[in-house]
Amino acid sequence: MDPGLTVGVAILDLSGDIIGVDSFKEISRAELIKYIMSHGKSVLMTTDVQTPPRMVKKIASALNSKINSPHRDLAVGAKVESVEGYLKERVGRYESQDGDSCPLPQNAHERDALAAAIHGYKKYQQKLQIIERRIKNNDLSVKDVDDIKIMVINDVPITKAIDAVLETIDASSKVPDDLTSSSKSADNFVRKPEITLNGSEIGIEISKSATEVVKEVKNIQEMVSKLKQKLKLQDKQNRNLQKRNSILEEKVSQYQDEILSMEKKIEKLHYQYSQDILHQKEIATKIAIIKGIQEKYYAEKSLRKQLEENLQAIKEIKTLELSKKVFPVKIIDNFTKDGIREAIDYWNIKQGDVVLLRNSEGGGSQTASFLIRMGIKAVITTDTMSHRAEDVFKKNMIPILKFDRVNLKITDEIALINEEDLTREIERWKGDQENQQKKENKKKMLKLIDEYRAQRKRTVDKS
Q1: Is 71 exposed, middle or buried (0-12, 13-18, 19+ CB in 10 A)?
Q2: Which one, 42, 66, 352, 365, has least CB within 10 Å?
Q3: 193 pLDDT band (50/70/90 cuts)?
Q4: Is 323-453 a CATH 1.10.3470 domain?
Q5: Other Cβ atoms closer than 10 A to 320
Q6: Does the pLDDT of residue 259 top 80, yes or no?
Q7: Is the pLDDT of residue 384 over 80?
Q8: Is residue 274 within 8 Å of 282, Cβ to Cβ?
Q9: Which of 117, 91, 121 lies closest to 104, judged by CA?
Q10: What is the pLDDT of residues 30-77, one digit of tens each?
């Protein structure tokens, strides 16, 4: 069985043949039990999950059927493969037996139910085949064979089950000794008188003597007396059994009432449990909303604090910018595009500003170009910058000043430099660049002269 809103049911007989596959939407328990019983007596109820569902337990209990479940939940792929392999085997068996078509699953519910039935049957298949081989020469009826199989499925050893059924058959075939003896006595009873016509005389001839007849009548009377006593005893036993049956029926009715009461209690507890879960989920949702609001509040509070600090820093920088003696230097912690963007948001970097690179690693030509496009006045570095970035700054005549060569003061994350020192260092850098440019130009000129002389010499030598 595959329980749910749509219930899948697959039924196999004790030979493993599929005798029913169906699914029902919103079927009642009573209707489902009636459908199962229409196919015969339920021996084993199977499911495709490790823990049998509540509905399966109830149906099995109502049918007095054993429950079988796998050691772990059956995977979808395994169920599909199991059903397909079993159907290939059984379709040929149906056609070879009577030409009837094999019931096939039409949806996932029926497939899962059939997979569960197949799994349960294969667990006992080897034992059932052993039973069929061992009773092959005993000429037992189908019902007797099924009785043996049912006992084995209910954990009775195979040999013990076979012996129990054979003993039952032998007992039912024997006739009680007293009934046999009474039959024989009846056969030896006095035969009807024979009437013979002998001249004018009519006589009656008795086949046995009167003494023998009286003796046999006496024996029969004693036997009848015994049978009457036995009949009285059986009547008494029958009355006792009926009384006991009545008591048992009352107990069954009482147990059924108790079961119904317990089921109502369970349903009530289940409803209360469901309500508690819904209440807990609602509380958890509200707690999550409150936590989200708190996190948002703390984030907004932190952002507000940061913005206030930024505003205070900008105000201090504005104050310093109005002073002609010192020049504010805006700090960039990391020489990357993200680091530059963070500094722009924090310091409001604009055209004509001087920036301090605390860490030049990661900066290349594109990062340098990003700073140049902002129109900065100069760059102060605390370490060695990459050649590509340095070449871009030099090409655009952006001074690169060394931290240890400028008198830079940093207080409360604000860097200041004396304006005269800044101007002097920038002029020195520009002078160094001009001298370096002159040297490079001189080298280029000398190289051109040397090349010209070499070419003249080669021309004279040829002529």
Answers
A1: exposed
A2: 352
A3: very low
A4: no
A5: 15
A6: yes
A7: yes
A8: no
A9: 91
A10: 899 999 999 989 999 999 999 999 999 999 998 989 999 999 999 999
Dist. CA 221–CA 227, nearest whole Å: 10
- Distance, in Å, from the CA atom of 268 to the CA atom of 275, rounded to the nearest integer, reads 10
Helix (H, G, I), strand (E, B) or coil at 47: coil
Q: How far apart are CA 5 and CA 26, in angstroms?
A: 6
Q: How far is CA 94 from CA 17, 87, 91, 104, 110, in A?
A: 8, 10, 5, 12, 20
Helix (H) / strand (E) element for 22: namely strand 18-25
Supply the DSSP string of 377-400, one letter for each residue: SEEEESSPPPHHHHHHHHHTT--E
Q: What is the DSSP annotation of 48-88?
A: SSSS--HHHHHHHHHHT-EEE--SSPPPHHHHHHHHHHHHH
Read off the pTM: 0.40
CA 337 to chain CA mean position, Å: 46
- Using one digit for the tens of pLDDT, what is the confidence trace for 227-255? 887 787 777 777 777 777 878 888 888 88
Q: Which of 67-71, 138-142, 197-201 has the lowest mean pLDDT?
A: 197-201
Opening angle at CA 74, ends 71 and 79, nearest 5:
140
Q: From residue 313, how far is each of 170, 310, 320, 349 by CA, in Å?
A: 109, 5, 10, 12
Q: Are 368 and 392 in contact (CB under 8 A)?
A: yes
Place of tokens 């999550």: 288
Residues ≥6 apart with Cβ < 8 Å to 49: 69, 70, 73, 74
